[in-house]
Amino acid sequence: MTRHQFLVCLLVSFCAAIASPIDAAAHEVRPAYLDVREETLGVFSVLLKTPMQGNARLALSATFSGKVERLAPVVSRPTGNAMLQSWQMRAVEPLEGQTVSIHGLQNTMTDALVRIEFLDGYVWLEKLTPGSPYATIPAVQSNWTVAKTYIVSGIEHILFGFDHLLFVASLMLIVRDWRMLVKTVTAFTVAHSITLTFATLGWATLPSAPVEVMIAFSIVLVGAEIVRMERGEISLTITWPWVVAFVFGLLHGFGFAGALVDLGLPRGDIPLALFSFNVGVEVGQLMFIAAILAIVASATRFFTIPRQAIVASAYGIGTIAAFWGVERLDAMLRVHG
Description:
3-stranded antiparallel β-sheet; 9 helices; 337 residues; 11 strands; 8-stranded mixed β-sheet; Immunoglobulin-like
């Protein structure tokens, strides 16, 4: 067992220990989305998407600091994991310069993306957080602000996507050569970038629930391959890990796309938002890998660890991922049963 592998084992075990309860509560931290579009001068259509947990939704509402009039009652409809509320309003005072707030956001663990599109084509985009649930609508906004918002969202998604991180860490337990590691990670990146793009643009789609189930069982498979490798057996995953990383990367890309759809894509800024989110996912993934390698570089002098640690980690990976798979499958059957 190499020192590199041992440190990866430790990180995998840590992720497995904490990820199960986090994954079970993952739907509680999906972002909210407020979309405001000017249809005629001073008249706006408003859409507020609020995450749901079962039949309950987060108690969130959108408010403006200036004078606005609601022109029609709020129409609500559930979409499985979110509640959509829509209405029309008239801005008695210009929205530029007003402060928009998501009331109740400070009592949650989620964020809210706010997008306002004006009749002249000007679009304002901002991400609100529990610590800062309001923002002032400026007169102009640069493309850099849009890019920054989605880059940060991509980084946050991958760093809190424990199933994706566990899959990458599992691959690092199989790959023992740094050149092959680069090749494997690159294949995974290219693959999920393809399906993220295709799914987000509507060129190819898969239902999110089955995708999440398959992602969990893809981790189970890699865990089983780690055990086979330690027994001296040979398989496609062990011999050509980059091929397997590419195939499962296509699947994980659909999972990333589901997160991006939950976040919401700004009309007119879709290419920039998609590219920026993808960049954020890759940056977050590289941060995770770099953190492992940095820990390895600083700690390799101090450890002499038995080879059984890899097998133990593989069983831990398989157990946690199987639990995720069964839990997600049960949730899917409950919704569609």
